[in-house]
Design goal:
single chain; mainly alpha; rod-shaped
Length: about 220
């Protein structure tokens, strides 16, 4: 009888612990469903109390992992966002860092970053192409970079150059100014060559003398 009483007491204690664990798990699941923006969890009432407690605990573990994974992905996306915003001088994506993001939020964030990455690559290509042309024009015009922006364009590491819309616009403006100077110089040279030829004709300068000057 004593052994039976002890066994019954143990079983009742186990049942009490299981019921308490079930209540705690259900409370955690309600919180996790709200945080993960999921429909409320409906536990199956069939089966033993032991099986129900095990199912609820397993479900809590699965949802906690989902929560950790989403928070970790959000952190990773925000790091990428900061890097891109530093390069492009844009504002960070608007999202609550403290809340658990929904799957839709993460998908929107990923698409936003993909768009920024594409924009960065396009601006980088434009910068590299314009920089190459600017260097050639400066060499042709015997022009030494004399402003901080010109020095940044010509001398600074390409990866460090800020690809903001203002900088890209300033880059195009610099390129147009140098092209205009070259066009002006070419026009002046053409005019001077014409005057030289006219003077050669009037002065009847020999062909040999003309050829010695032609290299210039």
């Amino acid at each position: 009888q004593s052994l039976l009483d002890m066994m019954v007491a143990e079983e009742e204690s186990l049942k009490e612990r299981l019921l308490k664990s079930i209540a705690i798990c259900r409370k955690e699941l309600d919180t996790l469903c709200r945080e993960l923006q999921l429909d409320p969890f409906e536990a199956e009432e069939e089966g033993t109390i032991l099986q129900m407690e095990k199912n609820l605990r397993t479900r809590v573990e699965v949802m906690l992992k989902q929560k950790r994974d989403r928070k970790q992905e959000l952190k990773t996306l925000q790091e990428q966002d900061r890097d891109l915003c530093d390069i492009l001088c844009t504002t960070l994506f608007c999202i609550d860092s403290n809340a658990v993001p929904s799957l839709e939020d993460l998908d929107r964030y990923r698409r936003h970053l993909a768009s920024l990455t594409t924009e960065k690559e396009q601006r980088r290509e434009e910068f590299v192409s314009s920089k190459r042309q600017i260097i050639l024009l400066m060499e042709e015009l015997d022009h030494t970079p004399d402003t901080s922006f010109e020095r940044d364009v010509v001398c600074e590491d390409e990866e460090a150059f800020c690809l903001s819309t203002d900088n890209i616009a300033a880059l195009q403006n610099l390129l147009q100014q140098l092209e205009a100077r070259r066009s002006l110089n070419e026009a002046v040279c053409t005019e001077l060559r014409s005057r030289i030829v006219a003077l050669w004709e009037r002065l009847q300068v020999p062909v040999e003398e003309r050829e010695s000057s032609a290299v210039h």
